[in-house]
Write a structure and sequence with these properties.
two-stranded antiparallel ribbon, 97 residues, flat, mainly alpha, 78% helix
């Protein structure tokens, strides 16, 4: 019984982590678009988002260089990879249930 509870908690953690990171990526993307219009008070927030999102995005930019002019499509690939990874991990955990 304890193992089943642990697996369920792990599934909840994976889902929550995926959604929080997706939200952070979306906020990072939005902050990059409107960076010049943001007040100085938001700089620590944008720096935090940059620090946690940019290494992951850089990984996808190296693997799949999808840039068409000024548009960078690596965030879409990164978001899709998070979603697929969470689905695969939760599917594996469901098999253990």
């Amino acid at each position: 019984m304890l193992l089943l509870d642990s697996i369920t908690e792990l599934q909840l953690f994976v889902a929550a982590f995926a959604w929080v990171y997706v939200l952070a990526l979306l906020l990072h993307i939005l902050s990059q678009w409107v960076a010049p219009a943001l007040p100085y008070a938001f700089r620590p927030v944008t720096r935090f988002l940059y620090d946690i999102c940019e290494p992951y995005l850089r990984f996808w930019r190296r693997i799949v260089p999808l840039q068409v002019g000024p548009l960078d499509f690596s965030p879409y690939v990164a978001l899709f990879a998070i979603w697929i990874g969470a689905q695969v991990l939760n599917s594996i955990l469901n098999q253990l249930h």
